[in-house]
Amino acid sequence: GESVGLHLPTLSVQEGDNSIINCAYSNSASDYFIWYKQESGKGPQFIIDIRSNMDKRQGQRVTVLLNKTVKHLSLQIAATQPGDSAVYFCAEFPMNTGFQKLVFGTGTRLLVSP
Amino acid sequence: EPEVTQTPSHQVTQMGQEVILRCVPISNHLYFYWYRQILGQKVEFLVSFYNNEISEKSEIFDDQFSVERPDGSNFTLKIRSTKLEDSAMYFCASSDKWGNQPQHFGDGTRLSIL
After folding, report:
1. pLDDT at residue B25 tops 70
2. CB-based contact (8 Å) between A100 and chain B?
3. Do B56 and A101 touch (CB under 8 A)?
4. A48-100 pLDDT, tens per residue?
5. A56, A65 in Cβ contact below 8 A?
6. Rounded distance, CA A20 to CA A35, Å?
7. Nearest 5°: CA angle at B113, between A43 and B92?
8. Are A108 and A38 spatial neighbours (Cβ–Cβ below 8 Å)?
9. What does the pLDDT look like over B27-56, one tens digit per residue?
10. Residue A95, Cβ neighbours under 10 Å: how many?
11. How distant is the alpha carbon of residue B27 from its chain centre?
12. Which of 45-64 (A) contact B at CB < 8 A?
């Protein structure tokens, strides 16, 4: 069945460190992936996306890596700041369920200490 | 930056009552979605909507649920006869294109069924 799971429910880092948040997905038919950030009381906020024809994509302080061989996705945040504290979700578009339905993972809480 | 807005932020309703959750998607977007998040669980897809029709719906979206775009700006989710298990955060999202495009989310309506 389809599922998107996260390895670590909580990640604690010091300000200035680099953070890596991991995600495993099970649907090999997925060809598009998104990372969202959710702060308390807010909706999911788009961070970065990647298509399956790429293995790396960089944004401002963030990098997403995609390993299709092992169905693994990661989000790297450089020089983590207290404002990065939030829950991070990966989400996928499984092609065999239509191009509209996002399937979300369970989320990883990132805690950044000053 | 354009954003999706949702009202109310919190809705408290008696079990069995009807509730309407409202959303104003980003103005040039054509595709609209509802998701829900039960406390402590994943964000789950409910329904997608395009050209005044439902494009896709999940098993959660049963006969008690309906969506409507009553005018050029609003997008609503109605639950006809609420149940205790409908208590959740309900997120509206929109996107400007079909397929592999990010969906942009509102900050949600917290629905509490008593």
Report:
1. yes
2. yes
3. yes
4. 999 999 999 999 999 999 999 999 999 999 999 999 999 999 999 877 655 67
5. yes
6. 12
7. 25
8. no
9. 989 999 999 999 878 899 999 999 899 999
10. 16
11. 16
12. 45-46, 49, 51
